[in-house]
Write a structure and sequence with these properties.
This protein is mainly alpha-helical. 43% of the residues lie in helices and 4% in strands. A two-stranded parallel ribbon has the order 1-2. The longest helix is centred in the N-terminal third of the chain and has 13 residues. The radius of gyration is 17 Å and the shape is globular.
């Protein structure tokens, strides 16, 4: 369930589950796309690459509770960047974050 064409993402995940694909296999899938209707990099493939990087120890992640704790303690070695679009930021600002507009126009 989601805004826009979420059915394609569900189909991709269903195919991966049915084929019992690993994260690495899913990250290598080459999907077609149509610029007006979908991004060049599928969010599912991006998620597979993020998970693969975590599993291989290339990146570290934090739980939301850890981020909240660091924001509340004003840690000098921690900065949260908010790169959402202006309407989203106006609706709900993330306390303690630094907003840097993504510069991506969602209306194109």
């Amino acid at each position: 369930m989601g805004e826009g064409p979420s059915d394609k993402f569900i189909d991709i995940v269903a195919m991966a589950v049915h084929a019992r694909m690993t994260c690495e296999q899913l990250s290598l899938v080459d999907l077609s796309y149509a610029p007006p209707f979908s991004p060049a990099l599928s969010p599912v493939i991006v998620a597979a690459n993020v998970l693969l990087n975590k599993l291989e120890g290339k990146v570290q992640s934090m739980q939301a509770s850890e981020v909240k704790e660091k924001l509340n303690t004003s840690s000098k070695d921690f900065q949260l960047l908010d790169v959402r679009d202006e309407p989203e930021v106006k609706e709900k600002r993330i306390p303690g974050s630094m907003w840097i507009p993504s510069g991506v126009d969602q209306t194109d």
